[in-house]
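Lab notebook: predicted structure, single chain.

Context: the supervisor wants predicted structures on file for every construct in the current expression panel, including those that have not yet been purified. This is the next one on the list. No modifications to the sequence; it matches the entry in the shared construct table.
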Amino acid sequence: MPGTWTRRHGSYALALALCALALPSPAGASGFSLSGQGIKALGMGGAFTALANDPTAVFYNPGGLGLLDKGKLTAGAAGVYLNESQFQGLSPGIGAGTSAEQEGGLLSPPVHTYAVKKLGDHFKLGAGVYQPFGFETQWTDPAGFAGRTLTTDSELQVFDVSSVLAWKITPSFGLGAGAIYRTSQLSTGRRVTALNPNTAEQVDIGSLAFETDNEAGFGWTAGFLHRIGTRFSWGISYRSPIEIDYQGSGTLTQILTGDDQFDDLNALIQPYGTELPAQTTLTFPDEAVFGIAFAPSEKLLVALDVAQTGWSQLEGLAVIYPANDSFDQTLQGAYDDTLSYRLGLQIGLGKGMQLRFGYALEESPQPDESVAPFFPDGERSIFSLGFGRDWLDIGFQFISPEDRTTLTNVDTLNGTYSGNTYVLGISATKK
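Prediction complete. Output recorded below exactly as produced.
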């Protein structure tokens, strides 16, 4: 890999990062965590804890920063394409005999930018901006969706700013720790219904859109990386849980039913067009990862990560309207802890080129009763492919969740959710 980066290449990376920062977050890996914090890792199924040999170590393993030779800069993004995710309703419950789909297409990418600066012979300072969590759902035909009183659309945006100090204790052992500043915004929409006494039918009378302010929380990260000889390394990394209290508001927009008398009555008694103060709290999970990497030959590298994610720290997600409690809603039930298994291969092709492959198996944190249209999730397999040369890394993932069926949803919206996701990422690195 060359020791310098051309001005032209640097301009491309900067433009890539700035364009992507203007876009919202897509859905991603286990639970609503995202892949794509590093493109080299993306191509290896996320198995990078025992490698951590580029600036994305700020995220994957801070201990790896201490063993980097020089200061570096990395910027990149990962575009996400969703096919049309499907829902097929099952009995018993409100979804029996119905079907629905989510909007597909190209969604916005998780972006990342990392910088590392050398501080003497033994210390390095690292900083990163990245998106570790996020999702976006949009159900087509809200008026006909059986789950419209639960959600018609939802979006979670998360950005982390992390600062890490790493120490090269020996030439083969690095230790790092740092702070995480997280900002996040949540939005969701749903239909509100009421009984029309003139027809004795339950009908839609309003669309309730809830959006929070951009709120902040704090956490920390730490890790170490130990290289044994030239062909084996191992490491452990940890990111703490972060709790964010959101303040926001909901707005109820009237939906006319065609019954003028009933519509006029609702206009008098419902708070249409009024800002309704609301609040919620979301606990993002911690994650501990153990990784090993070994080189059976000079051109082949194998990496394996096992991660435990503390999703049980999310005990539910409820939106509370202090002055309008009839609109209170539980968006998501409690989660369970999960394990993820990630395997990556890197093959040297000569002239600074590498070909990468990966596979990951990620458990879903959602018990059956918590599977809902706000964010449906299932255990998933991830197949990865990547390529690297000098300053450029490209990665691709095919994310294939198992069809997820629930017959015990707490809101009686039972059925099967299905769909796949494709991720294409690119990044550039300056040494």
